[in-house]
Amino acid sequence: MTEEYNPDIVTLSDDEGNEYTFEILDAVETDEHRYLALLPVHSDPKDILDDSGELVIVRVAEEDGEEFFEEIEDDDEYETIADAFIDRLQDVFEIDEQ
What is the dihedral of CA 72, 74, 79, 84, to 10 degrees? Predict the structure, then answer.
């Protein structure tokens, strides 16, 4: 039996109302927060070729029972979480640490 791949897809909007689609690749939970590693999804093949392939990492927050994603503004927090995702995903993806 072949296992079918069904990615978790989310669409996010920026402050100007532009929408971007991402695949959720992985999640990391700490005592304080949950974080997601997202990869941009493109429908146009040219956009796929032009994409840098960088992960987008967000923190999951909750307000009034609603989940939302927020940017990680603390550099140390971001580096710690980015390193955790690199360690978890490097066996599956070719990751170039810069």
Answer: -50
**Residues 45/35, Cβ–Cβ less than 8 Å:** no
Paired with 76 in beta bridges are none
Question: Which pLDDT tens digit goes with each residue over 29-82?
Answer: 999 999 999 988 877 666 655 666 678 999 999 999 999 999 999 999 999 999
Backbone angles phi, psi at 17, to 5 degrees: 90, 5
Q: What string of DSSP letters covers the chain?
A: -PPPP--EEEEEE-TT--EEEEEEEEEEE-SS-EEEEEEE--SSHHHHHH-----EEEEEEEETTEEEEE----HHHHHHHHHHHHHHHTTTS-----
Give pLDDT, residue 52: 64
- For residue 80, the model assigns a pLDDT of 94
